[in-house]
């Protein structure tokens, strides 16, 4: 604030050695173990830039889960590619067998979304992609700080994308990041997010512009917030995991209730506790009964219109102010007629409880008792 330099590039003299975005990038590389981090303006920008810089373009197919956030579908469509939805399994993200069945000669990438704090089957999906010569890109927007067998999520694919928006575990207010071990991809992402500047000149005016870009820069102000947040990440994860453990213990042994499958519980960021009830009717009943009993933060995603495919008619209609290349294809893209019965069967029975940092141990125990009472009544 004192230097007046709020932009991440240039103004080398006035900034007096302060490079907040660079500092956050280095810290995020250190945290994740990635060779490179590029911070950008949002998670949406991160996914879009990752797809474009990985070479996903017009006519390519990208396999992704139907339980995700609209940003992933938007990014695929605005890259000119066709989203192909593959069923999810009890991890609440991509089922490797369904991904394999969805591969066609046009498949360019698999976009794995680690939903609600926990991971997909990253090892199996990475091996599958390698076997088929397809790129794996990870959307880690909802699982920053998560890992699988000690390796940070986002490091199993060619590129890992993060969101630091206001509702994510680690927030900059708005912001995002892309990690990779591939220097060529990093250089491309770094240039793409800043009008194609290669950032190799002795000053900004001396940069070359090897590629067409746009502006998805993160500001110094946002990065300063992110750095402060990053210092609290382990504390936040520990609190979320404690809340998860206490609530899981409270629900243990309820007949018919099963928890979401978590490939490596130690790497779960525990932003949510997700579980399945035996039927859609029971899940719907619980989604009404829990708030009525005073439990807020209960999500029934099946009816949600920005996290589950079922309510996304604007994608199917390609209702865009831009003339998307997909709209000019002679055949209707496959995603407009995709039925996903296995995903419906899971999502219609899924409930997720938000785990809040501000809860005291006492609050969590009280919530656990209410949760058990209400669900036990329904399941009796
Ligand atoms: C939040 C989110 C994004 C987009 O991030 P923004 O920073 O809000 O643009 C992308 N994917 C998933 C899974 C998200 O939850």
Fold blueprint:
Layout: H1 20-32, E1 36-40, H2 43-53, E2 61-64, H3 70-78, E3 82-85, H4 96-102, E4 107-113, H5 122-132, E5 135-139, E6 147-148, E7 151-152, E8 159-163, E9 176-180, H6 183-192, H7 220-230, H8 233-251, E10 258-259, E11 272-276, H9 280-292, E12 298-299, H10 313-316, H11 341-347, E13 350-354, H12 361-379
Parallel strand pairs: 2-3, 2-4, 4-5, 5-8
Antiparallel strand pairs: 1-9, 6-7, 8-9, 10-11, 11-13, 12-13
Helix pairs in contact: 1-7, 2-3, 8-12, 9-12
Pyridoxal-5'-phosphate is lined by residues 42-44, 47, 68-69, 71-72, 113, 139, 141-142, 163, 165, 176.
Q: Can you walk through the features of this model?
A:
- With 380 residues, the chain is α/β, with parallel strands linked by helices.
- 35% of the residues lie in helices and 14% in strands.
- The strands form three sheets. Strands 1-9-8-5-4-2-3 form a seven-stranded mixed sheet, with helices on both faces. Strands 10-11-13-12 form a four-stranded antiparallel sheet.
- Strand 6 and strand 7 form a beta hairpin.
- Helix 1 packs parallel to helix 7 and helix 2 runs parallel beside helix 3.
- The structure holds pyridoxal-5'-phosphate.
